[in-house]
Design goal:
There is one protein chain. With 752 residues, the chain is α/β, with parallel strands linked by helices. Helices cover 37% and strands 19% of the residues. Helix 3 runs antiparallel to helix 4, helix 14 packs across helix 15 and helix 17 packs across helix 18.
Length: 752
């Protein structure tokens, strides 16, 4: 087999090593544009875990690489004059040039041909190759030529950065955050060889332009950055190596290969330098491709298909983590001035969401205990309740909204049961909500509860539009208060254009009723999907009627004894159709700008806030994105959040999507958490956060890092009504148990 590797980076070199070692007769050549012993940049980073994965692939290069490592276990964060050190992380750095020299030497030893000083822009000279590895870097010309075939997706990120070196020998991975001349500068620093360190500097484009660095030479950059970090550098100096100012390109590709051309390394995917995984990804690409070729008996079509099938989920997961990490650094101004050093450092260390509270404790239990103490102190200040003698996990700290104090940070998410009779809830709802209250959750939220018969999603949806409904709900509220410490809130809603549909298990929101249907309405006469009926565009009379229905439902909620109400302005229901530009095409004062689109939801909120007791809180659920081009923008959402807060909203329940039927959500673990984080920080309002929260450790991380104030959990509560009690057991927290269940307070089940 003849293989041509375009680009002499880690992906090409490592694949050529593995392939040539296994198949000595293969003709493998590597073509690199840089001269021999020349590369851009300074150091690369590996975790201890990463290198173990390469040990079995090629022991010779593994030994040479690990023998060149500079090891460290600690991370230092410098914030507002404070230094926070976290131990136990296990990293190693080495010179990038040394890594390439090791891989090149090993490849040559095995018989690989390596040619330097050659720029490949046209593949016509390589048509006789059985396989072409396109490993020609971030600015890959091959990817550019076949952009449509690869489904290339390259996004230039907003921040500016430069990759410098330094003579300062850092003994930890170090993060600096320095304010200078009205801007905030971040530095990512680590030692890669004795007496030499990488010193990556990043800032916003606005700060960069104001600093005068837009036309700076490398010497100008060194002079300016030397002043920014003068105290930290001391007598040490900065070093350049093509250290121009750049923007980071986020690279993804829908198709990993085209014909016999396969993308590898940065040509295929990028991971932001803040998680230091670019080299790891490239070498893992090489291992996976080599294994795929071997396992498929050198059938390249089958091998390349297998390569993408195996590699894509792993790459996607890491790129999601890199995206969150990148966005944290891009928006660090959001946290820098608001957070105290302890929380700021914890937020940084858990920013990618790959390290949660439990992982953190395995690395540095001492610092974790300090974080937990800090959270408990803040909870005591916020609620006025003395903190417990023993430091508690963050999710078991109390939280106060007006006069309502919830005993912990876990809420049962509103989940439609489709089991009501003309809006009347019954035994199913009592057991469903009552069991979660007995299960230890601090806040119980009812399902979406219609304010009118026509406001139901389905014939089985709950309602609060007659006195029988009020009495039925009062039974559930009384049970919750009598048999638990939980508070209970009701979510009030009108389904709008998503009304009059079949039960979820009979077809759901895109299956309109054929019998017993009722008219629907919305901000504009746009159907939810091609299957749903066209709703009536609401006129003033409709708007007045619905407002009074919300008022009547609110009065009934107070009579039933609810502790809190939530106004549903999300998920494509009636009020959400006013907020989204995809569903609001009105030409009157309720359409157009976000100020106008928000006008009717604000009318509803004002009306219910006016009659709801001053001592009781109101939340608003919003969809922070429509997951579709042309949908609601974050600036709109921040304006919405600030407006509701100014009118007396106590907390925002931050969800997303379900607004239009052609949405394209980016699902994943904690996938909606960044919305809560941004809104909480930038609108300065408490948030309830949702979105595939499953583990106790993730929930603790959310509270400790300040990404949300209450964790709203849905499916895990369906799976396990006693999720909160099991969390307490797992975390060795003494959660108050009902007398009936005290015999199993410390019970450890055996499942097999």
């Amino acid at each position: 087999m003849k293989i041509s590797c375009i680009g002499g980076g880690p992906a090409s070199l490592y694949f050529s090593i593995l392939a040539k070692k296994e198949n000595p007769s293969w003709d493998i050549s590597v073509y690199e544009q840089n001269p021999d012993n020349v590369t851009f940049g300074f150091g690369v980073v590996f975790s201890d875990e990463t290198m173990e994965n390469f040990k079995d692939a090629d022991i010779e290069s593994y030994k040479a690489i690990t023998n060149s490592f500079v090891h460290w276990d600690d991370i230092d964060v410098f914030h507002k004059g404070h230094q926070i050190r976290s131990r136990g992380h296990g990293f190693a750095g080495m010179q990038r040039l040394k890594l390439l020299q090791i891989l090149e030497a090993r490849a040559r030893e095995l018989g690989v041909t390596i040619i330097h000083d050659i720029i490949v822009k046209d593949l016509s000279d390589y048509q006789d190759s059985d396989l072409i590895l396109a490993s020609d870097g971030i600015a890959s010309s091959i990817r550019g030529k076949y952009s449509e075939e690869f489904g290339a997706d390259v996004v230039m990120r907003p921040n500016k950065f430069t990759w410098l070196g330094s003579t300062k020998a850092f003994d930890t991975f170090t993060f600096y955050f320095n304010e200078y001349e009205g801007g905030l500068w971040r530095a990512h620093c680590y030692q890669y060889m004795p007496g030499r360190s990488t010193f990556i500097v990043e800032t916003t484009e606005d700060t960069w332009r104001r600093s005068g660095l837009e036309t700076a030479s490398e010497d100008d950059t060194v002079d300016y950055i030397g002043r920014v970090f003068e105290k930290e550098l001391g007598n040490d100096t900065l070093i350049t190596n093509n250290s121009i100012w750049r923007t980071f390109p986020r690279v993804k590709n829908k198709n990993y290969f085209h014909k016999n051309i396969v993308l590898m390394g940065d040509a295929l995917h990028t991971a932001h330098f803040s998680i230091g995984s670019g080299t790891k990804l490239a070498m893992e690409d090489a291992v996976t491709l080599f294994e795929a070729v071997n396992e498929n008996n050198h059938d390249l079509n089958a091998a390349l298909t297998a390569f993408q099938e195996k590699r894509e989920p792993i790459v996607n997961a890491l790129q999601r983590a890199a995206q969150v990490s990148m966005e944290w650094f891009e928006n660090v101004e959001r946290y820098h001035d608001i957070m105290e050093p302890m929380q700021f450092s914890y937020s940084l260390l858990t920013r990618s969401l790959r390290i949660n509270h439990q992982n953190f404790g395995l690395r540095d239990l001492e610092l974790l205990n300090q974080v937990d103490t800090w959270v408990a102190d803040k909870a005591s200040e916020q609620t006025g309740i003395p903190k417990e003698k023993e430091t508690v996990p963050p999710i078991f700290t109390p939280f106060k909204l007006r006069d309502m104090v919830i005993p912990n940070r876990i809420a049962v998410s509103p989940m439609c049961m489709y089991s009501a009779d003309d809006g009347l809830v019954g035994d199913w709802h009592l057991v469903h909500l009552g069991s979660r209250a007995a299960g230890g959750a601090g806040l119980i939220m009812t399902e979406s509860t219609a304010v009118s018969k026509e406001g139901r999603i389905t014939p089985g949806c709950a309602g609060m539009y007659n006195d029988n409904h009020c009495a039925a709900w009062a039974r559930i509220v009384d049970y919750t208060h009598q048999h638990s410490d939980a508070k209970i809130g009701i979510q009030l809603s009108h389904a709008g254009r998503k009304a009059s549909t079949k039960l979820q298990w009979e077809g759901g929101e895109q299956a309109p009723l054929q019998e017993g249907a009722w008219p629907t309405m919305a901000a504009s006469a746009i159907p939810y999907s091609k299957n749903n009926p066209v709703p009536k565009e609401m006129d003033r009379q409709d708007m007045d009627l619905v407002r009074e229905q919300f008022v009547a439902a609110t009065l009934k909620a107070e009579k039933a004894g609810f502790d809190m109400i939530e106004l549903h302005c999300a998920h494509g229901y009636l009020l959400n159709t006013f907020l989204s530009p995809k569903t609001n095409k009105r030409s009157d004062e309720y359409g157009g700008s976000i100020e106008n689109r928000l006008r009717y939801p604000v009318e509803i909120f004002k009306a219910i806030r006016q009659i709801w007791p001053e001592t009781k809180p109101i939340s608003v659920r919003i969809s922070a994105t429509d997951w579709v081009e042309g949908g609601v923008e974050m600036n709109d959402i921040l304006y919405t959040a600030k407006t509701f807060k100014s009118l007396g909203c106590d907390i925002l329940d931050v969800s997303s999507g379900q607004v239009v039927s052609d949405e394209n959500p980016e699902y994943g673990r904690l996938f909606q958490l960044p919305f809560s984080d941004q809104i909480r920080m930038e609108a300065n309002i408490p948030t309830m956060t949702v979105g595939n929260i499953q583990s106790y450790a993730d929930a603790n991380s959310i509270i400790a890092s300040g990404r949300g104030d209450i964790c709203v959990i849905a499916r895990m509560h369906l799976f396990d009504p006693y999720w909160t009690r099991h969390a307490a057991n797992n975390l060795n927290y003494d959660l108050k148990m009902p007398n009936q269940y005290k015999s199993v307070q410390k019970y450890t089940p055996r499942w097999t």
